[in-house]
Design a protein that fits this description.
Helix content is 50%, strand content 13%. It is built from 12 helices and 9 strands. It has helices at residues 15-26, 38-46, 59-64, 74-84, 105-111, 155-168, 178-201, 208-211, 214-220, 227-236, 238-260, 264-279, and strands spanning 7-11, 30-34, 52-54, 67-70, 93-96, 117-118, 120-124, 144-148, 172-175.
Amino acid sequence: MIEKTKKILIVGLGLLGGSYAQSLTRQGYEVFAITRKQSTIDYALEHGMIARGTTEIDARMIGQADIAVFALYPHVFIEWMEKNGKYFKKGAIITDVTGVKCAIVDKIQSLLPEGVEFIGAHPMAGKEVYGIENSNEEMFKGANYIVTPNEKNTPHAIETCKELGRILGFANISELSPQKHDRMIGFLSQLTHCIAVALMTCNDDVNLCKYTGDSFRDLTRIARINEDMWSELFMLNKDILISEIKAFGGELEKLRRAMETDDVETMKNMMRTSTARRAMFDKK
């Protein structure tokens, strides 16, 4: 159990960082934050999401953290740690919300002082909107949370990270290596964003919104995309993502060939497989 006496630092008060702060503060933890904009700090204070916050690098504040959560772009996370990781106290546990792991885990671990531990995590929750004003801890309910330890992590840090996920209200806590995480996310998250983007860019009819139904809206909800963040995530995992795009393209081509050759049975087999696999997502 993470005792209520533990002080929690959040670096980056966007949608996820703000939602973490909202949940943890409500449950009685002392949460403080470092983020870029003063307006974000002001919003968090006004809405009771944090106890205190700053836009400056405050060595004393960093040194007080028992647990630190980083909600930054991968390259910003690394740059921040290069400059400021030295301020964490011995025994501090650092985690993150980053959507790729292999590109950052070893680097972050190499930058930390002795006795400070980084354990990766990925909350599988989000929205197609951004910013602290859209924070909502309710999005964690029913969602998945992946912890990504490697050989350098201690059982204590792994359990602390899992406990953080449970405190936040995630329904399912999983453990994957950074390598397995990136392969899984390449398919489940990054490929789906690629498909949504491609759907929105393959037809430029400005009147589409007048004719569309729920199926197109559902498929393209995530096409409202942060191009800076997602292009970085794609490039950091590009070998895996490219292989997933090829696999998807192969299945789409198989469906096209079935229609072209009047092979209705192949189409039906694909649809039966699709229906059976999708049903697994609806099981309690």
